[in-house]
Amino acid sequence: MRVGLFITCVNDTLYPRTGQAVVTLLERLGVQVAFPMAQSCCGQPQFNTGYRHLAEPLMRRYATAFQDVDHVVTPSGSCAAMIRDNYPRIAAKAAAEGRGDAMSEAAAGAVAKTHELTEFLVDILGVTDVGAYFPHTVTYHPTCHGLRVLRLGDRPLRLLEKVRGIELRELAGAEECCGFGGTFAVKNPAVSAAMGADKARALDDTGAAAVCAVDNSCLVHIGGTLARSGSAVRPVHIAEILASTEGSVL
Amino acid sequence: MPAFPRAAAVSTRDGGLRANLRHATHTIRAKRAAAVAELDDWERLRAAGAAIKDRTLRHLDHYLVRLEENVTRAGGTVHWAADAAEANRIVTDLVRATGEREVVKVKSMVTQEIGLNAALAEAGIRAYETDLAELIVQLGDDLPSHILVPAIHRNRGEIRDIFRDRMAQWGRPAPEGLTDRPADLAEAARLHLREKFLRSKVAISGANFMVAETGTLVVVESEGNGRMCLTLPETLISVVGIEKTVPTWQDLEVFLQLLPRSSTAERMNPYTSMWTGTTAEDGPRAFHLVLLDNGRTDTLADRVGRQALRCIRCSACLNVCPVYERAGGHAYGSPYPGPIGAILTPQLRGLISPLEESLPYASSLCGACYDACPVAIDIPEVLVHLRERVVEGGEVTVRGTRTVIKPARKHAAERALMRTAGWVLDHPAALRHGQRLAARTRRFHPRRLPGPGRTWTDSRELPEMPAESFRDWWARTRGGPTATRPREQAS
Questions:
Q1: Contact B388 A52 (CB under 8 A)
Q2: ipTM exceeding 0.95?
Q3: Helix or strand or coil: residue B238?
Q4: How far is A54 from B485, CA to CA, in rounded Å?
């Protein structure tokens, strides 16, 4: 089984620790990880803001970079959702514009092999106990694209429940959007900030030391809002919890 | 109307409005979820609803002709209106012909859409809203802010004040010493409205459905005011969007399950009124149906956007939308607020001003609306599709003619930025160079950003820039064919 890691542009640039955690975790589970340097961004910011044509080269780049692997794993629910949900749409529109089926083939290949990290662990590797140890109180924020596009369901929680030392706290209104939404946070700052403030309040009420999610992009907004309000809750990507062991506690 | 972000920035600061909306939407949201969970075939019903609507829309020309034939055969008169102005003219002329100067109205979205009350007022005709929430809005000289609960932004105390201060100007005054108890408020409205039901000779309604095979119109409602309006007056004028057509009575069965559970979280709505043409000695003696296009055929021409026409106006998408909950309905600048408004308004009106151009962006694309929609309108898909039209322009249909629109002007800077970012992201070497530059200068990064980035740092801290990107870490620790060592060591 050849597994490629799609790190995503946000993680690559701002959260290398998440990527390092994914590598540590997968290798601990006996998976050999390849990291094609030709990879870049999935094209979600462009596509979701309306620049579909600018997402096309990035979609082609993704398909080419990962053409030699059996599975692609990515620590981002929204990037996985972009690939699975929107690559076929981009391909269909390109075909409708009379530009042939090359994009459709690229999309089909990409869609079939792309997995968000928790999906890969539970569905492909068939594990929920990844041997992790994390002695902190943690609450889980299910991100919108993980929840409603990928339908991750309770996979992340099943993984978290098996982590030794962890104490999970319920989050009120967990399924409500945090207000990030990519360029939404910049285009509609007032509503985004109001949503973020409500989410931060709910997180504070859990009394947890950390909030985890399958997406650093939601966490950058949540974490930024928490930090501004002086909250003690810290954002942490689920990969970092799952990679943590008694030998190397985060 | 200002663009959505500006209007929302004002309404979001209104603590009272936020509290009213939060309370109302969360209550109805929980009730709806329970009502839907009672049915084990909900997903199949939902798929059936979507399929019936899609099939009907594909052959709408055929079903509309059948509808017209059957309405006419039953003694009604059908009028066709291409746009709001034509519809208002037809209705105004019909009321004038009766010699009456006032009409009672059943709550109707489409008459809000065309601004009928204002058009009637200009012609010297007074229109009385008889739905409780519409009455509150009308007396308060206000605008509706929700499809199903137009006065959702008002609380009991505000409603009592509106009744006490304004009812006398419109008819029977509010009883002395009116309290804010719901039962007292309802009784005040009942007494006020009863006069109008018994006096009015003309009623104006919309319809939730029109059954083509018999020419029957259907209104579902909760208060009984609709049934009063539909049965007591001598003349009934129904203004209905052409997309409300269903082929047969059998199709209704699906929607009469989907609509009440999605909208009011009821298993069945309290009043279902159906009327077919005219009947001697029973109900209105004259019945007019005004079939309204007003951008619907143009919307139908768009393969992705047309699914918005499936909408049965249940407002489930509003009640689950986190953006609607904070911004309120007025910020959408249309009788159709919330997620459905964000895709319907720019399609019905066209991308004619900064407001319509901003609506497709009034969403975080969280997808809660799609999950809640009883006819499975993929609202996020249409939002992104319309965003593309805003920034890239492209082919659209305007009044039946294919035309090409230009990209919205104010997006020029954004487009340049997106293009540059796109180029960098498609050239990993350049991306890596940029990452290293950012990492090396990280101690000098400002805590607050200037320019468009300010909207980020106004309410959130920036993440800290790491000393080394993942790519560089991988190259340094794992090597690889394209790996090069970064000049500085990771901390």
A1: yes
A2: yes
A3: strand
A4: 31
